[in-house]
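Worked example

This section walks through a single chain of length 185. The input is the sequence exactly as stored; nothing has been trimmed or padded.
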Amino acid sequence: MSEIMINQETYYETMYILRPDIAEEEVSNHIENYNNLLEKIGGKILDSQMRGKRRLAYPIAKNREGIYVQLSHQGDGQHIAKFEKAMRLSEDVIRYMTIKQEGPLPTPKPSKKSSQNTEKQEAEEATNESSANKTSDEKAVLNTKKQEAEEATNESSANKISDEKAVLNTEKQEAEEATNESSPN
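Given that input, the structure is written out below as tokens.
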């Protein structure tokens, strides 16, 4: 039983709902401001996620939708009153709730934007590394292959043109023969 308690840690989860008519940029500002406030008053942020706009089960302050934000944090418990007071005074927060959790700490989930930026950066780094690592011989081989491909394309285009000319010449000859046969001499 004591082993289970060792792995258990206390943390808090706060879910708050912002008004649905707030612009996405302002939502990001609100999230950042509340995260900064929490750290300023002694809390440690474990995870912060915007859950998006969802339909409410019942109207709250004449709103049928809200933008949900989930925040997992640690602290001594005294910071929650100050944090909730800031939300209570904000007109943009229509509902909030903080619950105490015990268990393994949540792992931060990467946001969509940061994961897309990370993928782009990794691709660019791989491209830069591969081009930096290539020797001049490898580059020469690549250039030769590229030139051969262009020449093959040009040759196939020339072959197509000569084939088309041959077909036209054949059709022209057949037409002349047909004209010669039909005209009396």
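What to look for: Helices lie at 2-7, 24-40, 79-89, 112-133, 136-182.
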